[in-house]
Design a protein that fits this description.
It contains 11 helices and 10 strands. The chain has helices spanning about 20-30, 50-65, 80-85, 100-110, 120-125, 130-135, 150-155, 165-180, 195-205, 210-225, 245-255; strands spanning about 10-15, 35-40, 70-75, 95, 115-120, 140-145, 185, 210, 240, 265.
Length: about 270
Amino acid sequence: MGDFLDNRAIGVFDSGLGGLTVVKQLMKVLPNENIIYFGDTGRVPYGSRSDTAIRRYAGQDVNFLLSNDVKLVVAACGTVSSVAPDVADGLPVPFVDVVQPAARVAAQSTRNGKIGVIGTAATIASGSFERAVHACNPEAQVVHNSCPLFVPLVESGWFDCNDPVVINTVERYLQPIIDAGVDTLILGCTHYPILSDAIASVMGEEVSLINIGIAAANTVANILDCHDIRGHHEHVKNHFFVSDTVRSFEQTASILLGENADFDVEHIDIEQY
């Protein structure tokens, strides 16, 4: 780290709660950075929307973060990273998506060359992870399946791996992936690590799960170092914003981030951006 400190916040956005899995990893890797997070809980899920709607939402999400003078933007959303990567074009700050970092890790991790990808319908239809994996490892076989019910399960607080509804849903979506004999599975939506206990129990311990939040957080740390824009806050305070009710988001955020996480949650009108 250079002598210069850039104490502006890191900006993170997602369609809802899922991006908190990226925030959790950023807090581990960069414990002295402030984070401003926007979860578009009023319009979740993005994965079943048209490409046009997803692009419009992503543009508004980015504009909101830039209005808060962030030093870097993370699209903590597999759908936006897949369908609207051009939201990064012309931004005044560095931009990190969640597709490229995870694809690199998966291509390096696989032993048998068979990689599974699960994501929203829009993510899977875009072929983004497949392209990114093949750019790193052209020989890899990529098998994918969309899991449209995973995001509503997580947003409703249903992610206990002992819940038969959760396990049955996971089993049904993952069966084609299991049948293909993959040894590596990319959880291609930031909501999915919240279901990772259930996913791991269904896939078995031989299969490596790639958490796109971990891959993205490591990439953010590298970029901050490359641009010499690391910050250092003695007392980190994270600010979260949502487009729907605050209470249920606060409760789930406390569970996901741990009771010691210091944050406040505020409602905003995203249509203004």
